[in-house]
Amino acid sequence: MNKDDAGSAGVSPESASASGLNRRHFLGAATVGTGAALAGLAASSPVLAQGATSAAPQVDFPDSRQAFGGGGSAGGAVNRAEIDLYDCEVEGAWPKDLDGVFYRVGPDPQYPKDPKYASDIVFDGEGHVSMFRIKDGHVDYRTRYVRNQRWKAQHEARRSLFGMYRNPLTDDPSVKGLSRGTANTQLFLHHGKLLVFKEDSPPVSMDPLTLETLDDYYTFGGKLASQTHTAHPKIDPLTGEYIGFGYEANGLLSKDIFVFSADRNGQVNWSTTVQAPYAGMMHDFAVTQTHIVLYLTNMVADAKRIQAGGVHFSYDSQAPCYLGVMRRGGDGKDLRWFRGPNLFCTHVMGGWSDGDKITVDWDGGEGNQFPFFPSLHEPFDPAKSRGLIRRFTVDLSSRTNDRFQSETLFPQVSGVLSRQDDRFHTLPYRYGYLNSPGPGGGWSIIDHQEKTVQVASVPDYSLSEMTFVPRKKDAEEGDGYLIGIGSSMKEGGRSDLILIDTKDVAAGPVARVRMPFPVVGQVHGFWADASQIPGLTHA
Amino acid sequence: MNKDDAGSAGVSPESASASGLNRRHFLGAATVGTGAALAGLAASSPVLAQGATSAAPQVDFPDSRQAFGGGGSAGGAVNRAEIDLYDCEVEGAWPKDLDGVFYRVGPDPQYPKDPKYASDIVFDGEGHVSMFRIKDGHVDYRTRYVRNQRWKAQHEARRSLFGMYRNPLTDDPSVKGLSRGTANTQLFLHHGKLLVFKEDSPPVSMDPLTLETLDDYYTFGGKLASQTHTAHPKIDPLTGEYIGFGYEANGLLSKDIFVFSADRNGQVNWSTTVQAPYAGMMHDFAVTQTHIVLYLTNMVADAKRIQAGGVHFSYDSQAPCYLGVMRRGGDGKDLRWFRGPNLFCTHVMGGWSDGDKITVDWDGGEGNQFPFFPSLHEPFDPAKSRGLIRRFTVDLSSRTNDRFQSETLFPQVSGVLSRQDDRFHTLPYRYGYLNSPGPGGGWSIIDHQEKTVQVASVPDYSLSEMTFVPRKKDAEEGDGYLIGIGSSMKEGGRSDLILIDTKDVAAGPVARVRMPFPVVGQVHGFWADASQIPGLTHA
């Protein structure tokens, strides 16, 4: 996203063009005279060359790596292929009793943007879901775009109709009233539905096996009284309840936060609307057995930028961050906002209550972790974006306390996309997982009890977010596997699905699926045991 | 397929393993101890390790490049991914009035073979069809395996059930009675059906838009009185008739040849059964306005080899080749077999009648062109496999003549997979096309009238078979485009769909579709104008 993005990604402009990544240069070099021929043909086809004003424009992503979808598929910026690959090639031995689905989702630009929105961010790409169905050591792969309202309108028009990230003022008039949601961030299986999330919109419901989109605007039977829904709902393992929230719940720059829970059948059994100190990003949250813990990052919704046709957010280092704590099942009037150090926290590792004491662990940096959003007061500082495990505690017993405490755990380990054994949502937990990129990195396994860290390293691979898979349904916490995608840097980004045994991390991957290509990109993933999936339960 | 195949394909064993193509070596290098871990796990999972006798074996193609599917997807030996890619990335300007579909098919091993059949040939891979739907400069890509009887049985079993190429004695007992056809060679649109061919079996009918398999054993309403059907039927452009044949029509080593035609609606309006001098390969044939021209290559059906569990054919340089000529619409009793030089001809460029004089042009070599089939009397000779344009003529006016004449045209041009403007099947023709691989090669355009050759070269690309596309429905012969797939050797085989304007060959490609990956392999392709395709005609 930076001017020197190609360089920082380890691909120099020289090597990029040598490997054919610069498409214009490549075309010119490959066939003498082709460039001229192309130019001539374009000139004689003014309808095609002029673009949106007449015929649909041709699908040609911009060359600039700084642009939305820039580099196209050749640059790895888009994938776009919807795929069924039955019985993937497997190496090693997939555990015979592993029976479930590993789901993933990420942004995958459906169309190049109108050039005036070419500076839009990668996270505005349309959601593309992939799944690995694993049983008896056989693995089937399937991907589908989420057919939400946005995708369908653009598919029909064969071009981009939505402008900048979370800025409806930049949309084509033809899509007024349609949901802008991309459904590109996380997915979750609950009450038999595969729900796919983008935090600016309600979930989309997909069939967990076919990936057919079933509801392009899922509102829990009309009970989701919010225009938004987090990408990170939680499940209470004791009750099976689903707990979610939406910020900017009632429109652009709204301070309303809708918080709710639904029972194991998806019936909303509690909801309330509370107010944030200001409208800003609240990407993840924590739920304990008794409380909801919100976090307001100082990534502020920026009215001026939106009016000017820019992205939704600006990083404001001078705005305070807040931890918000409220009782589950209450009317929300007990919500209290606590101040602490301004840490840019994105993902919760785990959290629990011990009487009046609330503890939540996040990965977080001292400064902006999202350089693609503009910074109001200072340039982006990579050093300050470094994510460490931040433990926030707050004591609710004092009625006058307005501060939370922050402690950095395992300062030797940095990373992002923290996770846990999802069966320990809301509960005290022992094991956390962190994606630690870079040399010597890998998937870090944090043991809070023994205060140790193990790193599952896969040399020459770039690893996506890991997800924990229990060895058996009733396995002890952390006993099982880490599953996730690795991209082979020596093979042009070709992907493996990798399985690490948490009881023998040093052994490296115990099994792999060798994909023939780089798989579609991922923000987050989710493991669903076969018993959770309708249609598989009786198979 | 030879022991030194990797070397002859330009990939040395050293470079193969350096680029990660040797999967075992790669795994070992990537993660210290991984190999041992994998071995250990396999040992503790004897059910998985033992394979077919208990649980379904894991899908892991052999490493050896000489083996069927050897190297797997990493080695480019299989693809297996069924894909929808809507609105592909386009460069250049696709002609705005080009409206139709470019279809392709090739073998794509569905499963690794039982190790005792690992020496099977690549052409025993299951047929995988791909299509590029082109309209208004937008291009949609779709691929599907042909769901024929063989595919369905193996899909269900999750393993290979069919043994060696055209040898039913090597099959799993569970598939007795099922068609062995792979439908992997050519496809053809006629009477609204997409028919997909393998010369050992009847066609499979697919929906031309969805690629759904509609009939896994298509017999023209029961009128195809043959167990086989050529991959190269012809269309009579004056009547719209479809002319086809099947050799070894009545079982293994049968000398029967079933010849037939169907009207433009697919109603069989003529058929007869004739006899070949011996059972051998008859890959292509020619049809003129008055005659059927068969060709029997000295690739003999080999009873001993079949009994021993080998492939169907052996190359027998001592067996004569025959040109067989018979009237269209007759009872077949007029069939005469003519001898000439023993040329190994595979594909017809064009053919016509002028009274009693029949002319047919083929590409052909002096010796075996299919090194993957064993040779009975001498080792494979690459020099003799070189394909040149062979013009065969025969004069039917003499009742005693038993020879045809052979002449080599354009000896400076070698190649394979010869084609013509399909609108000139059965008629005198001016333009032929030849795929001429190697340095300085490309798609060769033969002008028989001016006696010139132009080569459409795309440097650093390996080109698949080209197909001619008329510029407009009533364009003059040869006025239009050559369309086909090129694989970028500098980008790991990533594919482009390439369009060459036959009126400006020197300009190189006028337009391309840049695919994100190597597309599924191809033997042959077929262009269908939108007006031929049900569901598109009224769009």
What's the average pLDDT of chain A?
89
The geometry of chain A reads as globular
Strand proportion of chain A, as a percent range, falls in 35-45%
Structural class of chain A: mainly beta
N- to C-terminal distance of chain A: 46 Å
Oligomer: homodimer
Per DSSP E runs of 2 or more residues, the count of β-strands of chain A stands at 33
- Chain pair sharing the greatest interface: A-B, 74 and 75 residues
The biggest beta sheet of chain A reads: 6 strands, antiparallel
Q: Helix tally of chain A?
A: 7
Protein architecture, described:
The structure is a homodimer of 539-residue chains. With 539 residues, chain A is mainly β. Chain A contains seven helices and 33 strands. In chain A, strands 2, 28, 29, 30, 31 and 32 form a six-stranded antiparallel sheet that branches. In chain A, a hairpin with a 2-residue loop joins strand 6 (186-190) and strand 7 (193-198). The longest helix of chain A has 11 residues, at 34-44. The radius of gyration of chain A is 23 Å and the shape is globular. The first copy, chain A, starts with a helix and ends in a 10-residue tail after the last strand. Mean pLDDT of chain A is 89; it is low at 1-56. At the A-B interface, helix 3, helix 4, helix 5, strand 1 and strand 2 of A face helix 3, helix 4, helix 5, strand 1 and strand 2 of B. Chains A, B: Belongs to the carotenoid oxygenase family. Chains A, B: InterPro entries: Carotenoid_Oase (IPR004294), TAT_signal (IPR006311), TAT_signal_bac_arc (IPR019546).
